Amino acid sequence: MIARARAPLRLGLAGGGTDVSPYCDLYGGHVMNATIDRYAYAIIGPGDAGKSCFHALDVNHEETHSCDDDIDGEGPLQLLKGVYARISRDFLHGERPPLTVKTFSDAPPGSGLGSSSTMVVTLVQAFAEYFSLPLGEYEVAQLAYEIERKDLKLAGGKQDQYAAAFGGFNFMEFYADDRVIVNPLRIKDWVRAELEASMVLYFTGVSRASADIIDRQTRNIDDGDQRSTEATHQLKLEAIRMKECVLKGDLRGLEATMQAGWEAKKQMAHGITNPLIDHVEQVAFAHGARAAKVSGAGGGGFMMFLCEPERRIGLVRALLAQGGSTLDFHFTQQGATSWRVA
């Protein structure tokens, strides 16, 4: 028997960064995001006797370990090994069964689409399918968060795991003691269609280490940096405004909220923007963009632009001339899902 799973990547529309400790523990965080039809995939099947094989197909990294040995949580396959270790400890009474674990993703790490956290969610979902574990969306997301942030000690927030587990348009609330509330939003079909027609996703060609930026952001909050803290407060407010605009179909208000959130995010920490991002943003506004932001922690990855649909083609041409690439997408309502094949 083989178990397969997939979970959707997400666009961070507003409030990203307020889901990161210690800010959300001290003040509470609000995030508005939506998932798209680009996915992380995991496949789990039986392994050779006494051995488990971990293989990230898209980057061609592979490791084989004896089930009798401790498996380190380091290197390019740390996400696969980390999930395997935690599932074995918490659900299999410490037994490490021989398995073959394979993964691949529609987006590279550092894309700003939550690809790493989405991969952890996908792996947890696949293990839950393989071993018939009774895990709902909240349990899958929380377990994925603990594996990534606590077991593997990778810096970051909480929104990506919950977006991948639940899917759709969600307004999320984050509080102390890892308390999370996911509020699914009922978006009118015409609003969803208009957003798809108006939004351009542009990959800068630069994948960045989000952990470095998040570390700086965390230190700023810990140190009581007033500029960074006030900017994060503003981001949280823009997430609330974004929710209202999306629900009401106020597209002009949505554009203004996205741009205001991006301007606030730039103040949170050094490295969120850079000369390349600034240049691309200037080019985009010169060719019809009405709002811009980076999806994710910043520093590179994907940039998002809103424009009038009739100006989309011209905007795409201008962006492609900058050396990056664009990504076509549709919003998806489905979160992490899994199935079995013989």
Q: Could you explain the architecture of this structure?
A:
With 342 residues, this protein is an alpha+beta fold. It has helices at 23-27, 78-91, 115-130, 137-151, 159-166, 189-198, 210-222, 226-248, 251-265, 275-286, 312-320, and strands spanning 2-14, 29-46, 51-56, 61-66, 99-105, 169-175, 179-184, 199-203, 289-294, 302-307, 325-327, 337-341. The protein has 2 domains: 2-187, Ribosomal Protein S5, domain 2 (2-Layer Sandwich); 189-327, 2-Layer Sandwich (Alpha-Beta Plaits), CATH 3.30.70.890. It has 11 helices and 12 strands. The strands form 2 sheets. Strands 1, 2, 3, 4, 5, 6, 7 and 12 form an 8-stranded mixed beta sheet that branches. A hairpin with a 4-residue loop joins strand 3 and strand 4 (61-66). Helix 2 runs parallel beside helix 3 (115-130), helix 3 packs across helix 4 (137-151) and helix 3 (115-130) packs across helix 5. The termini are close together. The mean pLDDT is 92.
